[in-house]
Write a structure and sequence with these properties.
The protein has 401 residues and is α/β, with parallel strands linked by helices. The chain is 37% helix and 11% strand. It has a ten-stranded mixed beta sheet. The radius of gyration is 20 Å and the shape is globular. It starts with 20 loop residues before the first strand and ends with a helix.
Amino acid sequence: MKPMHNIPARGGLNYDETPFLAIWEVTQSCDLACKHCRAAAQPIPHPDELSTEEGKQVIDQIAAMGIPIFVFTGGDPLKRKDVFELIRYAAGKGVHVALTPSATPLLTREAIFKLKEAGLVRLGISLDGSTPEIHDAFRGLPGAWARTIQAIEWANEAGIPIQVHTTISRHNAHDLDNLCNLFEKLAIVMWNVFFLVPVGRGQLDDLLSGEEFEQVFGKIYELSQRANFQIKTTEAMHYRRYLIQHNLEERKMGHGHPHAAAAYEPGAPTADAHTRNMGWATRRVNDGKGFMFISHVGNVYPSGFLPLHAGNVRQQPLAEIYREASIFKALRDTGKLEGKCGACEFKEICGGSRARAYALTGDPLAQEPCCIYQPKHWDAHLEQEAEAYQHAAPAAKLAVL
C-alpha cells in the first residue's frame, strides 16, 4: 500500500513533488523592529542578496514547478527598488504573487496602486492589535497602526484583496474579539493567525502554553462561525485536529456539516463560514511538506521559522532541493515523527509544528511542544521517555537527516 504521506494533496498537488506555497524573502532590509521578527531585520540590505536576474531565475523555476502561491516577504519587500519589476515579470510567467510589506512611509497609496498595475494578486499586511497601543508596542514604531489601517483602505480602493496577519502571543491573545470586529469593517478576505515560534526576536516567554493554545483555538473557531472572511492558522497545525474534532462532535449532535471538509476549495464564494474554514484542514501543509522558504541570499529552508539549510538556488535547481534534500524528505515522511505526533491518529492532517519542535528541542521531528491532545494509542510513560530522549541527543538525531 502506498504511504499516506505520498498521496497527492487535495487539488491535485503531490507534496513530494510540488509545494502549495513558496515564500521568497526578497530582502532582510526593514525600517521596523518588531518584537517577534523571524528575520531580525536590519535597515541596510545584505550585500549578497539575490540580484534582479537571479530573482527572475527563481521566478522561472517557480513557474516551471507550477506552485500555486508565491509570496514576496522580508524584511520589507518595498525596500527593493526592483520589486515592481519582479512582480511584473512573475505575472508575465503566470505566477500569482502576493506581497507582505511593512507599514512604513514606503507603503504609500501610489505604491499600492503601482503594485496592482504590476500584477499583484494579494496584499498581506500585519495587524497585531485592535488599538494603536497594542499594535505599535508590538511593532516598535509609533503610528504603525494608523498607517496599516490606511494601507488596507488604499488596497481596497485599488481592488487588491487583503490578507491580514496577526501573530498571537501573550501580548495580544486577549484581543481576538476586538480584532475580528475591526476586520469585519475593513473588508479583508482572510485572517491568517500566526502562532509564535520563538526564533529571531520571538521570545520564549511570549509563547502560549498548550492549554492556552486550545483556548485560542476555541476562540478562533467561535469567530470563524460568524466572520465574513476566511480564518486560517500558521504554525498551529493542531488547529486542524481541533476543527475535525468539533465537526465530528457537531455531527454526533445532529447539526454538523457532514461534507464540510470534503466539499470546499478555499476561495469558493458560495461556501458558508463553517465550510469555508474547514477547507483549510484538508490542505495538510506543514514545514517542508507543501511549503518552501527561499532566503534573501538564496538559501532554501522548509520554513522561515525552521533554520535547517537544504541547499542554495545559486548551486542547485529549486525543484531538486525541494524534492531531494534529506531534511525535506524526512519532514514529509510522517512515519518519522516522534513522541505523541508519531502515534497520533491526526498526524496526516496535522503533524505538529516542525519549526516549534526544533526551536524548543533541537529536533525537527520531535512532538509538538504546545499540544495537549493525547492520542488514542499513546502511553503517558512513553511521553516521559520521549522527553528524556529529546534532552539527551538532539544533535545526534539531526546528523542523520
